[in-house]
Amino acid sequence: MIRVEIRKLMRRPRTWISIVLLCLLPAIVAVLLRVTHLGPRPGEGPAFLSAVLANGTLFPAAALGIVLPLFLPVAVAVIAGDAVAGEASVGTLRYLLTRPVGRTRVLVAKLVSVLVFLFVAVSAVAVTAYVIGTALFGSQPLATSLSGAPLTTAQVVQRTVVVVLYIAWSMIGVASVALLLSTITDSALGAAIGALAALVLSQVLVTLDAANAVKPYLPTRYWLSWVDLFRDPILWSDIERGVLVQGVYVVVLLGFAWANFMTKDITS
Amino acid sequence: MIVTQGLTKRFGSVLAVDGIDLQVHPGDRYGFLGPNGSGKTTTVRMLLGLIFATSGSAEVMDQPVPHGLKHALPQIGALIEGPAAYPHLSGRTNLTLIDASGAGTSRRTRRARVDAALEQVGLAGAGRKPAKAYSLGMRQRLGLAAALLRQPQLLVLDEPTNGLDPQGIREIRDLLLAMNAAGTTLFVSSHLLAEVEQLCTRVGVLDRGRLVLQDDLATLRAPTGRVIVHTPDVAAAVGLLDGRVQERDGTRLVVRGLSAEDLVTLLVRDGLRVQEVMAERPTLEEVVLAVTGAGSDRIDSSGDER
Asked: Which fold does the domain B227-280 belong to in CATH?
């Protein structure tokens, strides 16, 4: 069943278009930087963009910083929101379930295919950014970490790999919300928009002092903590918390999604 | 094959299906009839585990619904409220994906199964076109092909000939009859009475969620004991039959108390001409209309609006 879901995902043009767009956006930024040499001042704009001018190997990190706040969550919400609701709206869900495929199995297969998409999308951004970054800005043997100490290229690559994993994991929260809504409504668009609304709410609250009490539990609170991976030594505490918070959201939301889907009358 | 006891489904305050006791025997060609909104689809969905019953119980192929269904469903082919397919994929790919979903089908024989199903429904040449380019009739055929993929022992079909032209209807009916002859039980839900009359051996009639009739078609359509005769010598015939004529309509007379052969003998002995004679049987339409009310898609201004 998981294989079938991944095949379905791969045969949707939408999947590939969203990955291409995700890769294209940092490429545009890279070209503009290369042409103008006008990097944002250190500490301003997306992370690492100023450092990229000096060393292309840091561009994957910068690229992920560019797509993380909006484009990546939108893509994930659209794919995950479509997971169950999409099948319901074209009517194939009833045929899938009477095949029979167990409801739990449908949900797990959908989740796994969303995770595969996530991981492929984030990795694709990182890999294309590395190629573009080193081609346009060249690579230096040593990069400067945020703490000022130098990092070797091998270290940068290693840490970028961890960043890819962390960002993919951060997106699981969005995917879970979208998947939960996808089991509730028969409208794929509704599920995606609902998930994005939850996301925007979380991001608004993160910036709000009045929401200090709930801040540590917001799903987007630790999204940018991967930047700490480029400190020397690495500052793990926020990253660990980020992984944990996302994990709790995933378990709770998917639990609700499962409970709802198992007991739902399929009238689509 | 299908047995339900007091099967009931309530959606909020609406009682969609109200304590029905279905009995479908192995080998039956069962016609499930009823006006629009009478609860046919809800019942079918309950039988297949898509909707959970509020109360009552059901068994399908000796398995309790819904928990035993996973053992029964692999032997059931279903068409539920119209066919569905991924629009951007070809008919063949759609069938391949549905065949690959769920356990228990061998990958080696998949291509052969898909080819056979497409062949059976007459889509062998159109398997590569994307489903969104299909006509209504082709979509219907594709849905049937999906139901036939695993040589089901029970076919549950909701309006199987929807969107087909008369030739297509004939073709699909022949296919279903052949499958039934080979041992497949048919459960066909429809509001096309003529369709059911030609296909089915047994009918159940649903009206506002209640099963108001369930019997063999032969019993329901048994002769009424009256005889219909057409004769150009109407006046003479009425005089001769003396009070036995119950209805008179042009050259058509409805006569009670005489068998067809006795009636013909009587008329011919007196030199009256007979154009046509037959025993009166109720049509399925008459039977069904006698026990059902208007469908829920008709909403009159007064009375109970549901």
From this structure: Alpha-Beta Plaits (3.30.70)
Start-to-end Cα distance in chain B:
33
CB contact under 8 A, B84 and A91: yes
Q: Among partner residues B52, B87, B101, which is closest to A1 by beta-carbon distance?
A: B101
- Quote the ipTM score: 0.86
Chain B: give the shortest CA distance to residue A110, in Å.
Answer: 12
Closest chain A residue to B102 measured between Cα atoms? A101
Nearest chain A residue to B72, by CA: A100
Residues of A in contact with B12 (CB under 8 A): none
State whether B97 and A4 contact (CB < 8 Å): yes
Tell me the CA end-to-end span of chain A in Å, nearest whole number. Answer: 21
| Each residue's pLDDT tens digit, A32-61 | 988 888 877 766 666 677 788 888 888 999
Tell me which H or E stretch contains A10.
helix A2-10
In a domain, A210, yes or no: yes
> Would you say B61 and B75 are in contact if contact means Cβ atoms under 8 Å apart?
yes
Q: Which chain B residues contact residue A102 at CB under 8 A? A: 70
pLDDT tens-digit profile of B37-94?
889 999 999 999 999 999 999 999 999 988 999 999 999 999 998 899 999 999 999 9
**Side chain identity at A206, as an amino acid letter?**
V
**Nearest to A115, CA basis, from A61, A167, A185:** A167
Tell me if A1 sits within 8 A of A87, measured CB to CB: no
Put simply, the answer to whether B50 touches A8 (Cβ < 8 Å) is: no
Domain assignment present for A69:
yes
Domain boundaries, chain B: 2-220, 227-280
Phi, psi values for residue B11, rounded to 5°: -105, 105
For residue A201 the two structure tokens come to: 């709410």
The H or E element containing residue A221 is: none
Q: B50 and A12: CB-CB below 8 Å?
A: no
Residue A203's DSSP bridge partners are none
pLDDT at B296 over 50: yes
Contact (CB<8Å) B102/A92: no
Assign domain B2-220 one CATH number from 2.30.140.10, 3.30.2270.10, 3.40.30.10, 3.40.50.300. Answer: 3.40.50.300
How many Cα atoms sit within 13 Å of B134 on the Cβ side?
30
Distance from the Cα of A142 to chain B's closest Cα (Å) equals 49
Alpha helix segments (H runs only) across B14-109: 40-47, 69-72, 91-100
Locate tokens 């201004």: which residue?
B301
Phi, psi of A66 (to 5 degrees): -75, -45
